[in-house]
Amino acid sequence: MGHTLSLLARLPRLEVDGVTHRRDCECVRCDAGYRPTERERAAAKQRMSDKRAREQAERDVARRQERERINRALVEVFVDDQVKAANDQVQELRSARERAAADPRLAELWELRRAGYSLRAAIEEIERRSASATAAHA
Questions:
Q1: Number of H helices, E strands in the chain
Q2: Structural contact between residues 129 and 108, judged by C-beta atoms closer than 8 angstroms
Q3: For residues 65 and 59, is the Cβ–Cβ distance under 8 A?
Q4: In sequence order, what E strands does 1-135 have?
Q5: What phi-psi label fits residue 95: left (phi over 0), alpha (psi between -120 and 50 degrees) or beta?
Q6: Do 3 and 17 form a contact (C-beta atoms < 8 A)?
């Protein structure tokens, strides 16, 4: 029995582009004289270069979009934190205003100030009134 060549020994050897047969290819097609011309090799090389450039541009665009998405998310978080802090501060101010409105001594102080008392005299008058009210209840 004679030796048969493995079918794998006659498979085409391709360039990096995966399409063009290499110069040292020994496949049946290349042995028959149908090797790629230098022009075809140059065109395949250009196509491969263009494809790599497109893929790199796509990766750059994807990275830029991801960076923009992350920046938008960071800004959103920052704005949400600022809004929460402002809401907390407004709530504190409202509760302080409610406490001040509920304090009768503060209302008396404002009345005395509007009547022309100095701050010191108005405070002394409020303290005198509260001391006499406390003494009356005791």
A1: 4, 0
A2: yes
A3: no
A4: none
A5: alpha
A6: no
Yes or no: say if 22 and 35 are a contact pair by the CB < 8 Å rule: no
Burial readout 74-90 (b: 16 or more C-beta within 10 A, e: otherwise): eeeeeeeeeeeeeeeee
The model's pTM is: 0.51
pLDDT single digits (tens) 19-71:
788 888 888 878 788 888 889 888 989 999 999 999 999 999 999 999 999 99
103 three-state secondary structure: coil
Neighbours of 4 (CB within 10 A): 6
What are the tokens at 103?
Answer: 């304090």
Q: Return the structure tokens found at 105.
A: 């001594």
- The whole-angstrom separation of Cα 14 and Cα 119 is 97
Exposure on the CB side of residue 95, measured as CA atoms within 13 A: 5
